[in-house]
Write a structure and sequence with these properties.
Length: 327
């Protein structure tokens, strides 16, 4: 840009004055600089000199690296959307870092969703949840959608002809997929639906609703839990009542590695007892989810209580074994 074109004269003093005004306007969070003090020729006074002005970006290269990695390995977007967002994020990087990103990153050949409206679904669900927060108890918005699953042709197909009508309550992430936690009329438990499997999603107004104690109880119970607590109780997004279950974890070579327990339940488990051979812990989880999880770690985990939960899991294991033995 030519300063003469706009009638601006530039010299050391005007540049310094302009930079100082920019700093005052944007604040220290945006512009940072270095200062030094120098004595005057008679050594009676000192003057402060400002130099090395920098633009302080709100997003660092490290932040961008994390964001780009998360976008590139997200299963909630189509490949085209991943490429679009990755390109936009790279635009915020410095010149040097852009060269590194272009060298290091290529869009991975991996599983992406085929549902191009997934992000639109998430945005609409969040909007409905937000609008419902401060509405009268007899008035609320719900969402209507078709729920789908993949078949042998690798395409989405409806699981039933009728659309689902639910009250959306919370969005969470499990196994790199986003799920909706919601209330369905007449159900004894909250329901879960994968958002990338929803199609034809729209909102609908419901008015003159009567009080529903079961509904209010389920919503209040959800509100009282953190996302971490709810997710650990509903492992693999199984829904139903969670139970307090006791597990016996075997030690190998004198050490009970608990990383696998932390990966599944976070910090939502408690040690009951420990000796040189085993650790007894308690964790709250739905029984159906626990059946699957225990089978993953059958060589080191055993359910020891309550008795009825132990029997259910033992029966499930026997049936699974019989399916392999008796053909």
């Amino acid at each position: 840009m030519s300063s003469a074109k706009y009638g601006i004269t530039a010299n050391r003093d005007t540049v310094k004055d302009t930079l100082s005004k920019i700093q005052q306007f944007y604040g220290e969070d945006i512009i940072r600089c270095e200062t030094t003090e120098r004595s005057t020729q008679d050594y009676k006074n000192t003057n402060t000199y400002t130099y090395r002005y920098y633009y302080n970006r709100s997003i660092s290269d490290e932040d961008l690296q994390i964001l780009i990695d998360n976008v590139m390995f997200s299963k909630m977007m189509t490949k085209e959307k991943v490429e679009e967002l990755t390109k936009k994020l790279k635009g915020y990087a410095s010149e040097d870092f852009q060269k590194k990103l272009n060298y290091l990153h290529m869009i991975p050949d991996k599983q992406y969703t085929l549902n191009k409206l997934t992000l639109d679904n998430i945005a609409l669900i969040h909007q409905v949840i937000y609008e419902n927060r401060n509405r009268r108890y007899d008035k609320e918005k719900r969402i209507i959608f078709n729920f789908n699953g993949y078949r042998a042709d690798k395409k989405l197909h409806k699981t039933r002809k009728e659309a689902y009508i639910v009250l959306p309550l919370r969005v969470c992430e499990a196994n790199h997929r986003y799920y909706l936690i919601c209330y369905s009329e007449g159900k004894d438990n909250l329901s879960h639906y994968r958002i990338d499997l929803m199609t034809n999603l729209k909102e609908q107004e419901f008015c003159r609703l009567e009080r529903n104690e079961k509904k209010e109880g389920l919503i209040n119970n959800l509100s009282a839990k953190t996302v971490s607590e709810y997710m650990s109780e509903h492992l693999y997004m199984f829904y139903g009542d969670s139970k307090l279950i006791e597990l016996e974890i075997q030690k190998y070579k004198g050490d009970a590695g608990m990383t696998f327990l932390f990966d599944a339940f976070g910090t939502n488990w408690n040690v009951i007892s420990e000796d040189k051979n085993k650790v007894i812990v308690s964790v709250r989880c739905t029984v159906d989810a626990m059946k699957i999880w225990v089978m993953q770690y059958i060589n080191k985990v055993k359910v020891i209580g309550p008795d009825y939960v132990k029997r259910e899991i033992e029966d499930a294991m026997i049936k699974s074994l019989e399916a392999y033995i008796h053909k």
